[in-house]
Specification:
7-stranded mixed β-sheet; binds guanosine-5'-diphosphate-alpha-D-mannose; about 325 residues; Spore Coat Polysaccharide Biosynthesis Protein SpsA, Chain A; 6-stranded parallel β-sheet; binds magnesium ion; alpha/beta; 28 strands; UDP N-Acetylglucosamine Acyltransferase, domain 1
Length: about 325
């Protein structure tokens, strides 16, 4: 069975980070988002097709250097075709029922059981669902008792929101769904789903976690979810110099200054440097970044090799050297 991985978006809400690297390559606990998704696919997926436009070379380069266990086929998408158009564009590679996955969500969905659900329901299309408090940034569905979807609406306003069950971005689709996707720019959510509702669409909710990594806050919460309550300090780090209140993860060759306070919730990647008496709370620091002495970093993401001058306050910010082209 084939899977189509949707990673073609520009990640505009994550700029300036996504000027430097495409959203699928943002490292979540040291592993790119894209690899979290690929690793969650069951054995029966024998090929993953990845239509990409934005920063295709970087994605290709990463996958060449870090080949996943199963076959990956990258297809160039010259202009963004939308979530439906991107699938239609690779239809020659699809040979039967298939899976479509948004590449920017990380979840505990058991994809194998989801495919089983799709088969049992003899569905035309199945959608994974997650209950949210604010449905406005998502697509929502109305479910009948037998889990049939009778309504789908993308990005409802507060007034329009008729349910809290959001599209979690994994679909199992029959091959014939392709006949309902026109050429050119097509949105799966706005155009295709509403059109195929009467053919038999079903929704499956699941337990555990689900995080859309489209914003800084959601990426940070993805770290905190995956870290749970762990405190991990690599052997190469002299953790005695600062005060570490977990959860916190400190990777290889990080240097912690005297009196620095880390956590709760701090993730320091390899070779990061934290100056004396600096404080880092609910923040993630990527490889090689240097936090000056007496800085306060809170609810922020500090990108690779960024140097934060001493005594700077960084609150709810993404600092990155990435620049628009
Ligand atoms: N190839 C390709 N081409 N991929 C695209 C394109 C495109 O033109 N546009 C978006 N994508 C990819 C994005 O990279 C992302 O992985 C996925 O498709 C979904 O696009 P987003 O732009 O991230 O959409 P969203 O987060 O606002 O909403 C979508 O995801 C929600 C769950 O996270 C919708 O599917 C919602 O219904 C859903 O609730
Ligand atoms: Mg998204």
């Amino acid at each position: 069975m084939k899977a189509v991985l949707l990673v073609g978006g520009k990640g505009t809400r994550l700029r300036p980070l996504t000027y430097r690297l495409p959203k699928p390559l943002i490292p979540l606990m040291g592993k790119p988002l894209l690899m979290h998704v690929i690793d969650s696919l069951p054995e029966e997926i024998d090929e993953t097709i990845v239509p990409v436009g934005y920063m295709k070379d970087k994605i290709e380069d990463y996958l060449e250097k870090n080949p996943p266990r199963r076959k990956i086929t990258i297809i160039e998408e010259k202009h963004p075709l939308g979530t439906g158009g991107a699938v239609k564009n690779v239809e020659d590679y699809i040979d039967g029922p298939f899976l479509v996955i948004n590449g920017d969500t990380v979840s505990s969905l058991d994809v194998g059981s989801f495919m089983e659900f799709h088969r049992k329901k003899k569905a035309f299309a199945s959608i994974s669902l997650w209950e949210v408090t604010d449905p406005t940034p998502f697509g929502i569905v109305e479910l009948e008792d037998d889990q049939r979807i009778c309504r789908f609406q993308e990005k409802p306003t507060k007034e329009e929101a008729f349910s809290n069950l959001a599209n979690a971005g994994v679909y199992a689709l029959e091959y014939e769904v392709l006949d309902h996707i026109g050429d050119g720019f097509v949105s799966m959510e706005r155009e295709v789903f509403p059109r195929i509702l009467d053919k038999g669409m079903y929704g499956l909710t699941f337990e555990g976690y689900w995080i859309d990594c489209g914003t800084r806050d959601s990426i940070l919460s993805a770290f905190w979810t995956l870290m749970a309550d762990s405190v991990e300090i690599h052997d190469s780090v002299d953790g005695r110099r600062g005060r570490i209140s977990g959860p916190a993860i400190i990777r290889k060759d990080a240097v912690i200054g005297d009196g620095a306070v880390l956590g709760p919730y701090a993730y320091l990647s390899e070779r990061t440097v934290v100056g004396d008496n600096a404080r880092i709370e609910k923040s993630v620091v990527f490889e090689g970044a240097k936090i000056g002495r007496e800085c306060l970093i809170r609810d922020s993401l500090i990108d690779v090799d960024v140097e934060v001058p001493a005594k700077t306050e960084v609150i709810s910010t993404t600092l990155s050297g990435g620049k628009s082209e």
